[in-house]
Amino acid sequence: xxxxxxxxxxIAKPGLDSHDRGAKIVARALRDAGMEIIYTGxxxxxxxxxxxxxxxxVNVIGLSILSGAxxxxxxxxxxxxxxxGMDDVLVFAGGIIPQEDIRDxxxxxxxxxxxxxxPTGTLVEFVQENAKR
Amino acid sequence: MGQVAQLVQGVLRRNRRSIAKAITxxxxxxxxxxxxxxxxxxxxxxxxxxxxxxxxxxxKSTLIEKLIRELRKSGKTVGVIAVDPTSPFTGGAFLxxxxxxxxxxxxxxxxxxxxxxxNATGGLSRATKDVIRILDASGKDVIIVETVGxxxxxxxxxxxxxxVIVVLxxxxxxxxxxxxxxxxxxxxxxxxxxADRQNANKTWSExxxxxEMNTEEKSWKxxxxxxxxxxxxxxxxxxxxxxEHREYLKKGAFEVHRKGEAETELVEAIKxxxxxxxxxxxxxxxxxxxxxxxxxxxxxxxxxxxxxxxKKLVHG
Lengths: 133, 316
Ligand SMILES: Nc1nc2c(ncn2[C@@H]2O[C@H](COP(=O)(O)OP(=O)(O)OP(=O)(O)O)[C@@H](O)[C@H]2O)c(=O)[nH]1
Ligand SMILES: [Mg+2]
What we know:
The structure holds 2 protein chains of 2 kinds.
Chain A: E1 8-12, H1 21-32, E2 36-39, H2 46-56, E3 60-65, H3 70-83, E4 90-95, H4 99-107, E5 112-114, H5 120-130
Parallel strand pairs in A: 1-2, 1-3, 3-4, 4-5
Chain B: H1 3-12, H2 16-27, H3 33-40, E1 48-53, H4 60-73, E2 78-84, E3 93-95, E4 110-116, H5 123-137, E5 142-146, H6 153-160, E6 163-168, H7 173-183, E7 189-192, H8 200-213, E8 223-226, H9 235-285, H10 287-296, H11 302-315
Parallel strand pairs in B: 1-5, 1-6, 2-4, 2-5, 6-7, 7-8
Helix pairs in contact in B: 1-2, 1-3, 2-5, 5-6
The complex binds guanosine-5'-triphosphate (GTP) and magnesium ion.
C-alpha cells in the first residue's frame, strides 16, 4: 500500500480586505510546488478560518491581510488554534504588516511574516521546510 | 487506545477533529485506512448520498450552498465532499469549491471537506466512497459530493451516489454537446442553473430534447428543473424532486442498486488487494526494478512484462 501524503495548505483572508490578489499569487505558487490549496475566500472570521482548517485537516495556514486588523484578528486565530489542539499546524502570515508588530506575532506562534514582494520561491521553500507531515 | 480505535470512537461521537483526521488517513491511503473503514462499516448506510456533477462554472458549489441552507432549515445534518482535479504536471491542486459554502463552516451540523482526485484513475471512487462512510458513520443525514463532469469522474459519481444531479447552465452550449454522451445517461435529475440568464430556456429545451431521445424504458424518468442558485429560486423544487427520488429508491430500486454496488465494490477490492500484493512481492524481491528496466531499455513492452509476471504467478 502506498501512502500518498501531500502538504495541505489553507490560504485564509481574515478581515475586511476587498481584494485577494496577493493571496491568490501565494496559492498558485504553492499549488505549482505540488501542494493542495484550500482557499477560504474573502472576509473570514477567525472562527471560520480555524474551523475550516480543522475540517480540512491542513498542515499549514497562510493568513493574508492588508487591512491592518492583524493585531486583533491574528491573536484570536492563534487562540482558537490552541483551544482546538491544533498545535501541529504551521501558521505564517503575509501582507502589509508593520515591522514593529512582527515580533509580537511571532511570540503568539506565527512562525514567519512575509512582506509584500517576497519572492514566491522563498515562501514555497519555507513551507516545504516547516510543514509537519 | 490505539490510533484506529481513537479515531473510530471520535467519529462515532461526531468529534470534528477525529472526522477530519480519519478522512486524511483514507485520503492518504495509509495502512490504517481499511481498519477504520472495517470498524465503522456497520454504522454506515443511513445517509442519502447526492452526487452533483456538471461542467466547470455551471454553479454546482453555489447550488450546494443553497441546498445546505434548506436542509439545515429542516433539521437535517449535511456532509459535503468537494472533489477537484490534481494537476498531472505538478501534483498540486487548487480546491476552491468551499469558498461558496463558507457561511456554513461554523455550523456544527455541517462538515465540508475538499479533496483533490490525486490523479486516481478509478481509485477516486474508492477513496470517495470511504470518505462518505466516515461522514455517514458520524451521523450526517445527507452527504453531497461535488465533482466536475469530465471524463472519468462522471462514471465515478454514479458509483458513490444514490441520487445524481447534473447541473448545466446556459452559455456552456458547446460543452453540452461535448459532454452529453457521458453525462446525459447518469443524471437522475437535471438542473439548468443560471435561469436568470437570457438563453436559459433554450438550454432547458435542449436538455429536455436530449432526454426525450433516450427511449430506454426506465421506471424513473429524469426531469429538468430550472434554478437560480445565486438567489435560491428553484431550490425548494429541487429538494422536493430529490426527496421523490429517495422515495423511489426506497421502494425497491434501492435494493437492486445496492446489490450492484456491493458487487462492484467487491470486484474493485479484490483487484486492488491482488495488484497490491503482487507489486509488494515484486518490490520485496527486487524484481520490480528489473522489470521496469526492461521497459525503459525497450527490451520488452509493458504488456509482455505483465504477461511474464502473470506466468510466474500461475506456474510458481
Ligand atoms: N447569473 C448567475 N450566476 C450564477 C448562478 N449560480 C452561480 N453563478 C455564478 O457562476 C459562477 C460559478 O459558480 P460555482 O458555484 O463556483 O460553479 P461550479 O460549478 O461549482 O464551478 P467549478 O467547481 O469550478 O466547476 C460564480 O461566479 C457564481 O456566482 C446563477 O443562478 N445565476
Ligand atoms: Mg465548484
